[in-house]
Predict the 3D structure of the following.
Amino acid sequence: MKLLVDKITEIVGEAFNEAGYGEASCRVTHSNRPDLCEFQCNGAMAGAKLYKKAPIMIANDVVAKLSDRAEFSEVSAVNPGFINIRLSGEFLALYLTQMRADKVFGCNREEVPVKLVMDYGGPNVAKPLHVGHLRSAVIGECLKRLNRFYGNDVTADVHLGDWGLQMGLIIEELKNRKPDLVYFDDNFTGEYPAEAPFTLNELEEIYPAASAKSKVDEEFAKRAHDATVYMQQGKPGYTAIWKHILALSIPDLKRNYMNLDVSFDVWKGESDAKPYIEPMIEDMKAKGLAYESQGALIMDVKEDTDTKEIPPCLLQKSDGAALYHTTDLATLIQRMKDYKPDRVLYVVDKRQEMHFTQVFRAARKAGIVPESTRLSFIGFGTMNGKDGKPFKTREGGVMRLETLISDINSSVYEKSLESNHMGDEDNREDTCKKISLAALKYGDLSNQASKDYVFDLDRFASFDGNTGPYILYNIVRIKTILSKYVQGGGDMSDVNTIFAPYTDAQRSLMLCLTTFNEVMDQAYAEDAPHRICGLVYDLANAFNAFYNETKILAEEDEGKKTSYINLIVMVKDCLEKAINILGFDAPERM
């Protein structure tokens, strides 16, 4: 469906042509002075030099051609050459009715679905999710839903960190604590125990202890490194421990992601790339791309046009150990084989930008990924505390994600009781969870992904201002109005026709609704969830102003009342669709 601003541009363009200024720019934009007009065109300014004519004269000529257009209620030329436009109520209503008839509200979905593989989440097994995992999960989930809304075929991969040094650290620490376990007996030939020799809680204690020890004990660090290599080479006892770690960790990770309403289609990890590594390395050597340097295997990826240093891609250490470059490149081979994607999208901390620059270049150079497949990296900023430093617990440690969610639940619960936003006893727990999730996700997504932001729990959980709870409250308010309307005998069988506005507040709300498809298209094109947040906040504010100035249910004129009801049904549906893409939903009552 054509965007409203494009429709208006087309009409104004016709007028420019009819007035003899066909080559002048006639692009129409939303007015930056809504007190003066709704849309504006500065094409006359651009045409002044071309036609050697004063801009206001060009503008007047164009306005004369637009004066009788039914789409506009007012068109005027303003010095030094602006064209100000106000839509007719009938045209505005017709456009919204057309949007309403479209199941995606006029958004321009892909005609041919894009096959997209998304890589987000990226947790390390054997470690609990912490606040550092929040942004990847929340942003990635939103972009997954947004791409599916636009018709794409999306495969979301959590891409577990299950093959690196943390495995060797755990194995070596476990060996120190329990050296008599059969996993460390090189002569053992039987079946390894089905049950792990540690619990999940013990596992989550072992890793940080081992990591801390490796920083002060060089011998231990060396043994942990060697254990990693042995595991990667398939040493049976170490492989068995590795399987235990995965069996305990993955269900816990799934539970925590479920609490965030984040899901993945596949739970592959770095280890799944193992079968592709050796053939890939041999192919790179055969092509003359990979070569030895100080015992390690590297590949140059710098280009003549680079303005900054791009280091070589490190493929293999001197002892044969695989690195992140290696596993990411091999994973691309696996993804091209299994999914044949048109695009691969990574949602990772922006500090990894150089890593992905190297990987993408190496993948192109080695022929792993064809030019037709788009490789994209979205780097997100840091979630900071009020002190401007990375978010920590009060004791200064890294906060577990489930602790953060619990704190938000508690804060929302307290604020809800204070402001009577909780609803009845029966749905209290569910309502609190939905409000908390909205507070958490909206608080994150409303910031541009690449920027750092301050996580302010009090502000994010507030029912006032640009917050998730405020958005939900307005949706629930509409639901309440509609429920009362039905209870009073109102007919909801035909809510698909939007009527011309009766009031300025209604008109403002309708104009805001017309931007739904425009902003959603921008968010999709730019991979920008914050644009969706801006849209729902503007729409919630416009509804709030309309609600405060309009007697909806008390309106005695049935035609007006029907008009109001049909409009707010569309507002509710658009808001609910948008927040579902953001990754949360509204309760029935608050």
